[in-house]
Amino acid sequence: MSAAETSSGAGTVTELTGGPPPLDGRAAAMELEHLTCRFGLLTAVGDVSLVVPEGSRFGIIGPNGAGKTTLFNLLSGELRPTEGTVKLFGQDISRLSPPQRVRLGMGRTFQVVRVFSQLSVRENLTLALTGLARSKFQLLRPWRMYRDRQARAEELAKSFGLGDRLELLAGELSHGELRELEVLLALAGEPKVLLLDEPAAGLSPAERVDIQDLLKRLPPELTIVMIEHDMQVLRGVVDWVAVLDHGELVTQGPTLDVQRHPRVRELYLGSAAAHGGAAAQGSAAAQGAAGTDGGGQP
Amino acid sequence: MSATDDLGTQSTTASAGIEDLTEAGASPELLASRLSRREKLVGPIVGLACLVVVGILLTSGSYLSTIFEDILIFSIAAMGIDFLGGYGGLISLGQAGFLGAGAYGFAISEQHGFGPWAAVGISLAVVLGLSLVTGIVAVRVSGITFVIVTLAVGQIFWGLCYQWTSLTGGDNGITVFSLPSIGPWSLSSTMPLWITTLIVFIVVLGLFLLMVRSPFGLSLKGMRNNEPRLRALGYRTGQQRYIGWTIATFAAGVAGVLYVISNHLVSPANLTFSQDGFLVLMVVLGGLGTIWGPVLGALVVVMFQQEISTYVSRWETLMGVVFIAVVIFTPGGIAGILRKAQSAAHRLLTRGEGRGPALAAAGVGAVPAAGLGPHAHRDEGPTASGATPAVVVPADEGATATDADATNAGRSSQ
Question: Does domain B52-346 have CATH number 3.30.70?
């Protein structure tokens, strides 16, 4: 991919080169090498290579159908890549199952909220906190007796404004609260890398601010990879953005620079591709080629 | 569909109820937990007490005590189905096969010259082995496929018992003569047998009640509710299923050993598909996802089989009608009816205390709602959704399909 060729190496990127983010002495939390996923003839993700430095806030944007969620599913293990590899702190995890990846320090949320809607918030958090403990196989001791874990659940809930919601069923929460709960579930396992799939989707402007605040308060050493459709949410949360279209990497760079990039503006403001869906498939090849050019020649 | 609405309305009442209580000056969490704890214990305690009293009254008449032994024995097997189905969302239609394996294990061991206690041990070991082996296949699938695979496993066991005549006696089955005893305490006499059955039943019931409250039980509920989320939290759901399957089928094996000791006979008729159907029927009728509900279900089903059948020749039709009525009108099964009755009683009591119109008004909404509160809800969730297809809150099509399918299968079996 052209991104690799034009690696800038310089610390400050004033003009968008499409190269990977500078590591500045940090380790690479995740490395995607020529990641490809095909469903029959459709290439959902095509030859994407990215480097996510440890502790960075990495955004992935792109119009509907750009392959963002597929890419995420490849990272979290819901899908296996057709080609290419995913590395987590240098270890190849391409063939590991989602629970195995969680064990290695990966947490994720889903675009369509996935919580245990029939269980209370407390039970949701307890499940999340027990996920990596041996006591998840404990059969003869009530889960409520694990005082430390209950205290931790209460603390987590309080820290994100769900303190008075503990006994409610998750299905009774508002959409904004569900999003927060989902992030909490992912955080409970104390991941080193947190994958957030459109954490602000379907939220009101006020709730968006809440979730932005929540994300900004996360510990700085946590590496966050975040898909977002909405540039506004990304701004202030992420420091580096990669742009996907039709499964290919268009370009990447610091958030502000990417925002000014003509190709990104086109994707978001004008072109037919921005409306995704049916129109996308016919011209996939041509668009993909255009995307590569955009990345190579800023 | 109606169950979805039902669930929704109840949820809103619950939260509204809690707010009402706050206004009335009580700590909502405290009150809710106190009420729900009391409510949770009432059912099992009353049920157990009734069984013990009736059982002791009946021990003189050996026919009726046999009926009550059957109720307890089938309850044990049915609780296994409920553990895996009502909590884990995996309805097993092969449970009778394992009950049969337990019974045949005992009978065949005895035939080959082992003592009664050794036969019990061998039988349980055989059941455990069979659970572990069949589990390898069964846990790889979920939803309707799981139902079919378990059905197939059960039918294989039945086929073996029916055709491997040199070992199983074929159609005639095996009669057992010598039963376990400790000194004068021999299971061949009525009273010790009845009490032993009751003790085993209470132990199994206690274990199941403990297990559904354990971290493992919680993870089963999570699996039923949203398996991908559970996997994303680090749970290997295959392992959870395997453990759940082993526990559920082992319970059936225990029931099988008790069955052959109580009835002195085991034949392929104990492993037929209709036996599987009856067991699932007990669970759904009693209340899926409650553990003690299946005990009530077993009571009703065994009563139909043994008592009502002497007066009504078409008792199976009658039972089918009762089953359909229960499923349509109270998706929570008999346990659901009892819960509703209890909250109605609560309501009456609260009103009777006459603590001012405001509180009484709040009480109408608040007390039953809080009583049903978050806790009872959780129990009711699976129940309701298990009983009526196409239920459940969005976000997990998988689990819904599982239950809907499983229930359909359960229904068609009766």
Answer: no
